[in-house]
Amino acid sequence: MPSFTRPSEPIVGKMHIGLTDHIEGPRDRPTAAILGEVAELVMLADRLGARFAWFTEHHDHVHEGHLPTPLLLALHLAGQTHKIQLGTAIICLNLHHPLDIAEQTAVADLLMRGRLAPGFGSGSTPGEFRLFGLAETADQERHARFAEALAIIHDAWRGQIGDPATDSSPEFFQVPAHRPLPVASADLWSRTWIAVNSVGSARIAGTLGLNMLFSHLRTPAQYRQYAETYRSAGGNGLIAANRPVFVGPDDATAWAQAEPALRRLWRRFQAEGKIPADMPESDQLPDLAGHPINFIIGGPESVARQLRELWSFVPFDVANVEVRWAGLDHDQVCDSMRRLMEQVMPLVNTHGQPALTLARNSTA
Q: 16-255+294-348: which CATH topology?
């Protein structure tokens, strides 16, 4: 079994790589086979020097997901890796009681010896809310509930919930004053991430001093808007920009290999309503790779250029990539991961990449 190594190198002066995986696959494919591929990919990423790997919560095969409990996968993979920080992107916090999540994540991080990178979000799909007997709420109430849940997690991690002499009455969660156990690692809060898909969630992340995860469904202009809101609210943590990425040996080969995955993803997004139903499927692959898919495809030099262009529009600390898609086989995904780490990132970090200016107070 690998030894645990607590991360110590600060994120300063270069772009780092994180992975996000939604643990997707057909409903009839064995979950164990999907988890096995993801485990191999994360172990490879760890050996190659990727900084993070995050796993997503989905229930009832929503978005083709097989994993309702991402924290368990992060904890399991901590025993098979050495340095990579493992976490959740995201736990859908409004599906759970925050005290339960606070206790689970505190225990997991202690077992992982400081390598947990927990990520939380405020939303989910209507079907997932119905599974838990919950009603969807308007954005204002959803964000207020989310902020209150995060405050409970923060207090639970520091070992003290509630002070009747000073605390105002909670609106959503009636948690009695007590001293939770275990007390979390002192730096766990600074290693926590918030999924930001709106100005409201960017403001919450900035106010609470947490790190910020973007979705690949958002445009660079939206990234910039959220970053400005985050900074104006006091945010000085890490920012991770998300994009699907496939790196081939050269541009032509990359597009040829990625075409099946790109077309399947485009049709899926159209079926899910993210692309207008009356929009015809283009013969031109770059058109299909555009918004809202936002897929970066090419040889190493092309992918490095696209990452630098995105960074130049809105600086970020972590390129949070999604590399495993239906239509790509496991060997192609692993080869793409190798090229990303061994060929793309040296180009990104040596060709005009200025020192990053964000997140100087975080120990993530």
A: TIM Barrel (3.20.20)
